């Protein structure tokens, strides 16, 4: 892992934790599941570009899908 991967992972994990807490308190499944995915997926992705792409997509899903 390089510095960029660590920083992207930290950023997405922080947003993932916020989505997780919001989804749990509000009883909404989409933010809850996206939060879990945002906290876990950086461990499995090696490419910085792919990491940013997946992370930004997961950040946008709760804004597009209301559920």
From TrEMBL:
<keyword id="KW-1133">Transmembrane helix</keyword>
<keyword id="KW-0812">Transmembrane</keyword>
<feature type="transmembrane region" description="Helical">
    <location>
        <begin position="6"/>
        <end position="22"/>
    </location>
</feature>
<feature type="transmembrane region" description="Helical">
    <location>
        <begin position="50"/>
        <end position="65"/>
    </location>
</feature>
<protein>
    <recommendedName>
        <fullName>Amino acid transport protein</fullName>
    </recommendedName>
</protein>
<keyword id="KW-0472">Membrane</keyword>
């Amino acid at each position: 892992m390089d510095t960029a991967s660590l920083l992207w992972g930290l950023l997405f994990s922080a947003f993932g934790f916020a989505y997780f807490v919001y989804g749990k308190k509000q009883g909404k499944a989409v933010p809850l599941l996206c939060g879990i995915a945002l906290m876990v997926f950086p461990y499995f992705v090696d490419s910085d570009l792919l990491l940013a792409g997946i992370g930004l997509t997961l950040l946008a899903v709760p804004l597009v899908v209301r559920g």
